């Protein structure tokens, strides 16, 4: 089996981290070789860059470059070796987050974002992407009082709209819009048999 990448996307409060962990645990119980990473993060450099971004009030371009540097570290140190070993890789955020948050949210030129995504990933894209789509109101309710600058309602609306634009425009990719988690698990079960082809 070749390596296989599954990414989970969505605005803060959508529940993607929870579902990514559940899928990781599910596949581990089935005995498959699987890794779970968060982006940005999961390497020493990427975690440091993540912390710096969250603690600093950066201009949009500097923020974008730091996120891409963190992703480059993740791809080089974790994802590429896992792909060579034929692992299933589950990602809590990946390139679509940067397009949605920095491209649509911070209104950085999308061409620039796409080029930097391509460079940081060495051209790698997820085989499957699950976009958890919840209303802005529900997401903010889940976040409660713990909000960062990335969770400003007006900003999050642009990000959410950006995610939907990615879904509707990138037809060549396997991106699935998830409105109901129970339906998602049923959908994944069907795709598991068709896509991964593991006996």
Key features of this structure:
199 residues; 58% helix; alpha/beta; five-stranded parallel sheet
End-to-end Cα distance, whole Å, is 10 Å
Q: Using the coordinates above, name the CATH class.
A: Alpha Beta
Strand order of the largest sheet: 2-3-1-4-5
Strand content: 5-15%
Given as residue ranges, the uncertain stretches (5+ residues, pLDDT < 50) are: none
Number of helices: 8
Structure in words:
The protein has helices spanning 16-29, 44-55, 60-84, 95-105, 110-121, 136-143, 153-169, 181-196; strands at residues 4-9, 34-38, 88-92, 128-132, 175-178. The model has no long low-confidence stretch (mean pLDDT 88). It has 199 residues and is α/β, with parallel strands linked by helices. The radius of gyration is 16 Å and the shape is globular. The protein has one domain (4-196): P-loop containing nucleotide triphosphate hydrolases (Rossmann fold). Helix 2 runs antiparallel to helix 3 (60-84) and helix 3 (60-84) packs parallel to helix 5 (110-121). The longest helix has 25 residues, at 60-84.
